[in-house]
Amino acid sequence: MIYGFARRWAAAGVIGVIRDQLCRKVRLASGKTPRAASAIVDSQSIKASETVGKATRRWDGGKLINGRKRHLISDNSGLVLLVMVTDAAAQVSLVARELLFRLALDRSPSAGRQGPRRWVVERSWSWIMRARRHCRDYERLPEMSESLITWAAITLMTRRLTRRSSRPATQVTTWTPVAQAA
Predict the structure, then answer these.
(1) pTM score of the predicted model
(2) 2, 8, 88, 154: least CB-packed within 10 angstroms?
């Protein structure tokens, strides 16, 4: 039942709208502009479960993995802007070009890059991989895999927005030794 809702929402674009609105709110809450000025692109090869059809997975000779490749664009603070899942043999430069084109239609950031701030998108992958479901690709359809990764990003952004801005002060007590009577 929940899976059916997720598929329908993904097909209707609802999940993307939620992601974009939360991203905007998180950026505003952190004192940044509502839209990202730059984007960082990265990909990750992941093993595919036996439920993934042979038509949507392939061999990645560089990583020696039979599965899919996940492509992610994040902003400088690690917020996920766009996700795309392809077979593992997909050429990263072509997919990155497609992702940047889609992003430019939607948000128009200045550039997508891999370089000194690549660790930001690597950190985003780490946050997403905390959900055990994303350690391997189990989804039959790549589109469903994309939407589940986006849901993980939505969860992370929701946590950022609802996190307390400051921790309550704790009372510090010092330990003083008691002299022993002889």
Answers:
(1) 0.77
(2) 2
Question: Are 152 and 17 spatial neighbours (Cβ–Cβ below 8 Å)?
Answer: no
Token reading at 13: 């674009």
| Residue 158: its H or E element | helix 142-162
CATH no. for residue 54? Answer: 3.30.420
Domain assignment present for residue 166? The answer is no
Contact between residue 88 and residue 66 where contact means Cβ atoms under 8 Å apart: yes
Mean pLDDT, 10 residues at a time, the chain of 182 residues:
82 92 93 86 89 87 89 89 91 89 70 63 84 83 89 92 64 58 54
Residue 169: inside a domain, yes or no? no
